[in-house]
Amino acid sequence: MSFKTDELYQLLPAIYRIRDAEQGEPLKALLAVIAGQARVMEDDIAGLYENWFIETCQEWVVPYLGDLLGVRGLHPFGQEAAFSQRARVANTLGYRRRKGTATMLEQLARDTTGWNARVVEFFELLGWTQYYNHVRLHNHRTPDLRRTDALELLDTAFDTAVHTVDVRHIASGRGRHNISNVGIFLWRLQSYFIPQSQARAVVAPPDGRYWIHPFGLDAPLFNRPQTETEITHLAEEINVPGRLRRRPLYDELEARRQALAEGRTPAYRYFDDRPDAEAPPVFEVYLDGTLVSPDEVLICNLEDWHLPADFQTYQVPQPVGPPVPVNRAITVAVDPVLGRLTVPASITPGEVRVSYAYGFPGDVGGGPYNRRDSLETAFKRSEEAASQRAVTWQVGVSRDVTAVGGETIFTTLTDAVVAWNAQPAGTVGLIAILDNSTFEEDLVGVSRIEVPEGSLLVIAAADWPDVPVPGGAPGQQQRPVNRYEPDERRAHLRGDLSVIGTAPPNSETPGALVVDGLLIEGATTVLAGHLGGLRLAHATLPAGLTVNPSVNPALQNENLRVQVDHCISAPLLLPDTLRGVQVADSILEAPRTNGNRGPALAADAGGALGPEAVIERTTVLGSVHVEVLRLASEVIFIEPVTAERLQTGCVRFSYVPAGSQTPRRYRCQPDLALRLRADELGLTTVAALPAAEADLIRLRLRPGFTSTRYGDPGYGQLSQACAEEICTGAEDGSEMGAWSFLKQPQRAANLRTSLDEYLRFGLEAGLLFVT
Questions:
Q1: pLDDT exceeds cutoff 70 at 75
Q2: This prediction's pTM
Q3: Could you say which DSSP state residue 24 is in?
Q4: What is the rounded end-to-end Cα distance, in angstroms, of the chain?
């Protein structure tokens, strides 16, 4: 039933409607309220029906349905987690039917953690005397040294070589090859696909050598996992988000060229470019907009940056006589391990683009993932209000798209910014960057971003629908923010960006700027003026952010609040005249000078005190110098923290190194570990601990990372050797730092708890993290 005000109103006798119209329709207004409440009740009834089924129920209902099935070990993740336990509950009956099998354990691991998995029964890889009635022909005592591809996979999840017995327990992560051991290999890094990202030439003008990463970094390419179609299928290398290796890609393309030379149909695995292919190629190269066929791609080691030859020669057997040589053209050479690309000297492309996948722990920094929630936040009227400001002016920026529903499309960001600067005060504008191009331009000087009083400008890497949605101001078109598609968009600004607030000094409504989903390679600067807000979301800033100080009180941006959300950034240099800075779910990194890191958050490079700060779930690779540390929660500070005012603020569930000056702390490390050890020894104070023992505790608890080099897949990820107090030290039991929102300890704990129910008697399982 549908409760609409007009339909209910028409059910009333005409005489009542006539008299109601004469009195200003108060009865109709009452029916509107009744109809609204009826719709709420109707939706609630429909929701109750949907909550009967695991496929359609709300997320909070999942654990309750799991209880009905007797599902154990469902530790909650919280509302902010992007992972659901719905599949774990939905497949419970299937687990019990196939209890104890390797494929079932693999499915259990994938559903419970959300990570790709492969299960290896290590007794299959033991070198022992075989029973003649059960001969395993694949189990050879000595490996074939001619099978280079198999040799590369030694001691990995796809190892096929035979090993001697290892009697150590696999649950402790020490032993592997034993009769009772089952290994569950897990890939925690995600594979992010970027379509047609512009490659970076090594020199200008280009000489045929390119980095695939837009910043000009060596960064490995990752596999685009192919979906397993059969439940009885054990995951193979092509089904997991791992680093691409040279050998299998080289072998496939060489076999493909040989088959084409002989007139045969090639075998497809990583490079299936047929129209009806179940999975696309792992990467594609475009020269001046033209797709390069995989049979013209050469896989090789490009450590020395050599250029490939124009062709490869293949010998085609003949029925009679010697084989005939056939040349196959080579257009591009790719090194997937280093992320490099070269073209023959005879080819001079104007632009090189690559569609590829890279590996990263989660949705932090500029990336091609879904950022709809972030864009909705950008248009909120305030942090407290749920309503959004309507977009009254919008344009697109693209090198590929010429028109979208009659809207204005610029080819450069400079043109879009100049058009914005001509808009009146109070405008809510959006500049949508529609592709993954690199824009080599500087938004400074006459092209700087100007934000007048009451205005809001959002610059986002996002697509928009082809069909405009009517509405908004007269003569304009309005689109709801949630209609924008930020998937597969990651724009790159290879230049500087500066912004100035032009509101009057005494204005209570200065303008704001939002940047979402961009890689800004140059310096990002807020000029002296009156800007009210700057929000950086899902952005990467290798040169950091600077707010220029001013001796003029009217130009000190005193109302400016800086928000850094899910970003990767170099130092934030913010004067203490600002209203404050908020950092959440981000990585701040200060460069090293003579082996030491400078300030990651301060007023200047010298370490002067910055503004009031709120830092949550962030990894800070550098020192922090602020006037007030209002809150620091679940933060990893690698270098000392200095706050001027100690009577205000709180630091909780964080790692705070020695030498820090902070407000009161609650359950921080290594303070908590030192206190517990002092209590064990019956000491009244931590200072009474022996210095050598205290130093060992501090050394053990110092966080370690898989990598601290931006561009590496494991950048900012806590290492597997990191202390448990850090890996599970957040308030909800997750890890401290930038990747707290991934809830990795809870995922692993859920899996370990579930394994006891489904393992066969006498077997022992261990979790082996590949990435």
A1: no
A2: 0.86
A3: T
A4: 52
